[in-house]
Structures are given as structure tokens and as C-alpha cells.
Amino acid sequence: MNNIILDKINRFTRRKLSEDEVYVFSVILCDNDIDRDCERFSDEALEALKERFIGKTGIFDHEAAAANQNARIFDTELITDSSRSTAYGKPYRYLRAMAYMVRTDENKNLIAEIDGGIKKEVSISCAAAKRICSVCGCDKNTASCSHIKGRKYGGQLCHTVLDDITDAYEWSFVAVPAQVNAGVTKKYSEADTVKAQAVQTSSAADEELRRDIRKLAYFSGGRAAADIASLSAANLDTQQLIALRKAFEKQCGKSRAEVQLNTSAAEEETTDMFSMKEEG
Ligand SMILES: [Zn+2]
Question: What's this model's pTM, rounded to 2 decimal places?
């Protein structure tokens, strides 16, 4: 590992870490190809995600009661693979991230599995303010058209282009792939890694939990529910936050697909909409 890498990592640490203390690995966060939900990111969206994912923590299993949040992205890179083209005939581009973990007894096994090259899917969650119809160019967040994604028009596959990224929340390794929920989940790609045991630390982790809770509350009850959840999460400790998130996950697991299919709830918020990018 060279010093440039270590310097980049140490921008995010409370004290300077040495080479022996960190484990570095790469993951592919997302790409520009049409996914199984017939959606894709625009080039601008990929550029925005490249910036926004720096410093973001990753979790190793959405369902884990105490999610392991000790991996952090310290660098990102957009790579064009000209040997491959997308379904719509453009060069394939993907966003690769470099992440680190502080080596601990708890994540020893995880690191061994990552080293072993076990392939798992990565999901990201982010907010896209625009969802553009590939046929007519209208923004489906604010307008509607008659084109249906997945159908062909003039020989071209109709899909939704996710654009105008307003936030990036998290990335995660999904150990057990979730069901594909139309309209909810999307981007996934492969990474060299796998599920981990949980270590819950620091107030940063609490902040992540509060954000998760808000997000989940939003999905189950809209803006008002999210505000209430934020208020009640404000004074909880880590264990309580985990329990609350679990409760919301349970509720959300049931209602997420419906909430998203009933687009009115999600699309009222055009500037800060949670277009969940998570996929198993
Ligand atoms: Zn259209």
C-alpha cells in the first residue's frame, strides 16, 4: 500500500492509521447500463455519485440487527470499459470505489472471505430528483407520459434514466438478495465481499442509524412520519436505535413495494426524493 492511499484513508480517521491496521478493498457501486428494473443512471448521475460516495460508510447486511458499519469509501473512480457496451449501445461505464476497514478481531473472518474473492452484490441508496423517460425525455417525477418501461418503441427499449442526484446515503453488501420490488430497488453490481458480523461503534454510526430510521419511516408513512421518527430517534442510544430501525424495517419490508407502486407518496417530494437504490 502506498502513502497516497494511506493519506486518503487518514482524512477520515480520528487518529492516523498505519498500513498494518487497515484493510483495503474495491467494490463496484453502480454503472450506466439498464438494470433489471429498466432503469439506469445518466452520465451526470454517475459523476455526482462519484463525488457523493466519498466518505460514506458501508454496511454488510441490510437485515442485520446490528449492522456492521465499519467500512468506509475513501476514493472513487469512473471507469470506461470500451470492450463492453450497454444495452442502449454506449460504452460501458462503472463507478468503482475503494474502501477500507480497520482490522479487528470481529472482522477477521469477513476480511478472509473478501480475500477469498466471494462475490456478492452491492447496493447503493441515493436520491434522484429526476427520472427521465428514455423515449420522450419527460421527467416522470413531475410529468407523465404514455411510454412504459420495458417495452420497445421504434426498436428501442424504453427505460428510465435516473438523473440529478441530490444525495447518496449508503452502500451495502446484501448477503441474501432481496426480492426485486418494481420501482423501488435497482442498482447492483458485483463486489468481492460478503456478509459480516456486527460491530457497532461511535456516534457516526448512531447518525447513520437515525438516517436509516428517517428513510424507512419516510417509506412507510411519508414526510410526516419521517419527521416524527427523526424527533423520537434524536435522544435514543445505539441499542434503542437499532431496535427502532428493526421495527421500521419490518414494517417497511411489508409496505415498501406498495408505497413505491403507489407513486404519489414518493413523488410528492421532487427535490429530495428517496429513490431507493438497493438491490439484492
Ligand atoms: Zn415518455
Answer: 0.61
